[in-house]
Amino acid sequence: MNEHVAGRTVFRTSKLEEADGDGLNPTNNRTMGEIIAARFSRRDFLRGSMAATAIAATVSPMALMSAEEAKAATGSKFTFTEVEAGVDETHHVAEGYDADVLLRWGDGLFPDSPEFDPTNQTPESQARQFGYNNDYVGYIPIDGSSEHGMLVVNHEYTNEHLMFPGIVTVKDGEVEIAPADQKRVDIEMAAHGGTIVEIRKEGGKWQVVRDGANNRRITANTEMELRGPAAAHERLKTTADPSGTKVLGTINNCAGGVTPWGTYIMAEENFHGYFLGELPEGHREAQNYERYGVPDGSYEWGRFHDRFDLSKEPNEPNRFGWIVEVDVEDPNSVPKKRTALGRFKHEGADNIVSRDGHVVFYLGDDERFDYVYKFVTAGTYNPDDRAANMDLLDEGTLYVAKFEEDGTMEWLPLTFGEGPLTAENGFESQADVLIETRRAADLLEATPMDRPEDIGPDGETGRVYVMLTNNTKRTEANAANPRVDNAFGHIVEIAEEGGDFAATKGTWEILVKCGDPSIAEVGATFSTETTKNGWFGMPDNCAIDADGRLWVSTDGNSPKATGRTDGLFAVDTEGDARGTSKLFFRVPVGAEMCGPLPTPDLATFFVAVQHPADGGEDWEGFGRPSYYEDLSTRWPDFRDDMPVRPSVVAITKQGGGKIGA
Ligand code: FEO
Ligand code: CA
Ligand code: CA
Ligand code: CA
Q1: Helix/strand/coil for 24
Q2: 487 C-alpha vs ligand 4 centroid, how far in Å?
Q3: pLDDT tens for each residue of 462-494
Q4: Considering the entire predicted model, what is its pTM?
Q5: Residues 495, 498, 502, 505: is their CA dihedral positive or negative?
Q6: Can you spell out the DSSP letters for 42-110?
Q7: What distance in Å separates the CA atoms of residue 372 and residue 457, rounded to the nearest whole number?
Q8: Is 453 in the pocket of ligand 1 (CB under 6 A)?
Q9: Is 269 in the pocket of ligand 1 (CB under 6 A)?
């Protein structure tokens, strides 16, 4: 893995995914032909899919209509006029709404933060400024307020070709990035992690409170503590940390969550990209790392920091891939990596209190053919005693989902000593089960999914929405992943047994298969009220708001893939309107949509516009590679002396009131 030293091509999350090839799941759990055969005879299955095709082809007149022509869907919970889908340099929000940029990469977060100077960035200045590639956005109310709170934001990764001047050459239409020096690597590390910042709405507009006492930047170097069953295990010990309990930093924090006790949850996703070098011959972690795609070498950090070089610190990758919990009420608190919630490419960490008071976390492992998980705390949530909840996440049961062909599903416990999770299969303790969560789930014959992203519970209905973003490597369908070559993804709806989020059984169905409903071959199943603007591909994040309305944001729509940018979509789940989708907000070219996070009063939605200008070759308005000196958009400043800047946007209704209603 030395190509990166000589200069490497542009890093994108999509590149990391491609690097994974067919996915990393070696089991044949994916071979669920038997299950399909049991549910549908082959002929029925074909007839079924042809019937769906015929419906898509003949009864979707709305799919050809524009927003203006379309009327409100029957019984829809949403009443806004949708945005026209398309591609351009800026963002668009539904008529009657404001979308104001609140925080941009480089914005100061403290009274002493240096002014953003993209041509003279330093690790020190970046560590006092808003980081790069905002993904998860959470809001923790102060005194219950919807107009004053702590905003928490993940900074998932860095796009060097968009961030740094003078490092790109274009060869044969491909962007090549010059090898990094230590300063650049250290800026990248400071641009990762998270931001915790006080915000306040004044005169109807959100403002950053720069002197907020609890404002904080978390980076790839912030000291953290490993907690839970895997903490202090041999496999987590390194030269710098012989205790196996102290780790520096968090990386690739994609989505996340906020707990009922007001802590910030950061999910470590594609951690494999940050490691390079080779494991010593015959090292015990070889099989483990193979299952996670470690090392991938997308970043050059290991050239300057031994801990990211496997030949020097072979255990370091076991210290990433966890869920991290941060106490936002103490800027000096040590964030905790909660090993009880498993180690995989954690997409998000939406959570909810079950009727018996247990806290249930829904967790996706974003890789082709990987799994859907949930974690149920052993203890119960105490709404009257914040301190009593602070270590709830150290004890509980991690489950992985198995979806049956008959529409039932089961949550299988990943518990040491149960079933195949024994010494015979190389597991000596719960720590081993957690460090190799994927292999443990393989042995339990969990259902391999089409890249599980966010998973959102609906507290009113007991249902849970699973975003499955896509999987073009799928050659055999299974019931819960019914399309081979699944380019556009789908959403699975789980109904937990008895509406109890802590249940170990449930039923499931598919809410929608995504893609363009006017193209029969795609097999999309949006409702017939969905217009040509309202459909989407590649569902990624989701939120079920306080009114039980599902919002879905997307990652991967592009001029080439779907003739549109990513956006935020309102999706009906009930009654005649079920499966109807409407476009509420769309991002500039090259960007992905993250969020939304509604405030409790639903009067503000915070969304994150991630990696704008990362792409543009396939857009007729640009048509060439995009990089610092030649960007497909300079959103949001549109100044010649300012690069494109990933930013958090606050959406409000003109004149106030609930969003989308
Ligand atoms: Fe960071 Fe699963 O997207
Ligand atoms: Ca992302
Ligand atoms: Ca995403
Ligand atoms: Ca994604």
Answers
A1: coil
A2: 13
A3: 999 999 999 999 999 999 999 999 999 999 999
A4: 0.93
A5: negative
A6: HHHHHHHHHHHHHHHHHS-GGGG--TTTPPPPTT-S--SPPPPP---SS-EE-TTEEEEEEEETT-B-S
A7: 13
A8: yes
A9: yes
